[in-house]
Amino acid sequence: MASLPMSRYKPALAVACLAAVCVSAGAQTYGLGRPLGEREVAAWNIDVDADGAGLPAGSGNVTRGRAVYAQVCAACHGDKGQGTPADALVGGAGSLATAKPLKTIGSFWPYATTVFDFINRAMPYNAPKSLSTDDVYAVTAYLLYLNGIVGDNTTLDAATLPAVRMPNRDGFVGDTRPDTANVACRHCSNGAPGH
Question: Which residues form the Cytochrome c domain (predicted)?
Answer without folding.
Answer: 60-147
